[in-house]
Amino acid sequence: MGNRIDIINLGCSKNLVDSEKLSRQLELNGYIVRHDPEQIQCDIAIVNTCGFIGDAKEESVNMILDLVAMKESGHIEKIFVMGCLSGRYIDELPIEIPEVDKFYGKFSWNEILSDLGNNYLTERALQRTITTPSHFAYLKISEGCNRHCAYCAIPIITGNHKSRPIEEIVSEVEWLVKEGVKEFQVIAQDLSYYGKDLYGEFRLAELIERVSDVPGVKWIRLHYAYPAKFPYDILPVIRDRANVCKYLDIALQHISDSVLERMHRHVTSNETIELIHRIREEVPGIHLRTTLLTGFPGETEEDFASLVDFVKTMRFERMGAFPYSEEEGTYSALHFEDDVPSEVKQERVDRLMEIQQQISFEQNVAKVGSVLKVVIDREEHDYYVGRTEFDSPEVDPEVLISKDKKLEIGDFYDVKIVEAEAFELIGIAI
Fold this sequence. Notes:
CATH superfamily of the largest domain: tm_1862 like domain
Strand order of the largest sheet: 6-9-10-11-12-13
Structural class: alpha/beta
Radius of gyration: 22 Å
Shape: globular
Number of domains: 3
Number of strands: 18
Number of helices: 15
Helix content: 25-40%
CATH class of the largest domain: Alpha Beta
Strand content: 15-25%
CATH architecture of the largest domain: Alpha-Beta Horseshoe
């Protein structure tokens, strides 16, 4: 059997961290590892799947079937499948797709090493092969979720919230800094809950302070907080620490009390509004990213109208909207009828994003003339592409910078914003 391995990551950034850790272990055992799903050239293919919503599951299955065809034609020797879809359907998938050599649970991917006749090197467990631009990395601080929202399959797939110890996370950051990482995207299914299971109390603020103290950490950005029982002690950390970005990704999903109740979000409309006001009051200039869900069972025109008003009033700096997707095994799938037509769900998404596009444009126009610190992610033919502290990779606006000066990938520069569009800024390095 050859030693060329392709790891195809189809999941979220949390999955990406697992793929990077597996990649490192394989390389330490002498394998040549690639991460290019567009040009698969390997002896062994490993697919890290997503099982969150229907479209993602379909993408994962289609990729597996494509690899099966390559195996049958002699281009691949073995196929291994890991990740959320694999863990969720660990009993069904081997029957449905027997050509796959082995399916692994969400947290048992390290068994791939032993199945290949190699050892998992526990002393290197914190190490990773960075597949993002080398100056930034995702930092996963926990797995699972205790919230059990009615629409969400994540607790079914990953189980209850499991925080990683603070010392372990800090050690990983120290190692990553030595590897050249300057910017950390802190991720979890639920940041707000961090520490409760390990320490008996929420410890997100302490964790971020500890990470912030590591020499060489330039930016820390927080993703996926939960509004109920929000840990307010994180706000002074965001406000006062220079290397903690004034940015918070907090999924709110809806604002109608009746919808929030059916969603099992454990928060009311008034509490949500008070939370947003307090965040903005305590951290001036913070950019909030949120996601909203349209077409949840029973969502009326009145419910949606309240969501439209909410978006117009709150003027989120960053926002995404998605149509409800019924997921088997969830509370809503078992107890509610998926009664909002798919075209209505999408129309509501489009309406929200139309509003948000105008808000984003107006907010970007307000930045024209200002000087912002920007990290350079890549170089294109006509310009450099970077991000401000208010922009997370892949989902948020970018800054296009003229090539008047030679800039280095991964370095930080002061950039004067000279032009604005809805989802990007144009600037000159000064």
